[in-house]
Write a structure and sequence with these properties.
Length: 130
Amino acid sequence: MKRKTIAMVMLVSIISAGTLFAGRVNASEVNASFVNTNRTANNASLITPGTQSDLALVTFENYTPWTVQCYTNGHFRGVVLPMHSLTVWTGSGYTVLSGQANFVNAMPAIWNSGLLFYYPGGTYSWRLAP
């Protein structure tokens, strides 16, 4: 019985820790007059910017066996699990994407896109591979 209790506590801890790293859109990045809400679509299209919103949609595609922390212009955007994707809003214009997988007994694996240019209202994806 004690093992079941410990296992349940560990499961709840893992689930609650995963919700702490969900990607967010800052209020300063989104002008409320250009936002549409579509409740029937997936998370990527819950916020649909207008043509003047100066936002671009970026999808981090994780094709690695590791959990990767995702950043745009040095700002943490969320965690993407192995073989999953994470879609976030970022400012249009020149942008740097990066990702980092941390390990206990090794140096972290780091991805850096270099300087990219995103057009307002554009949709882009960045593939992370080992």
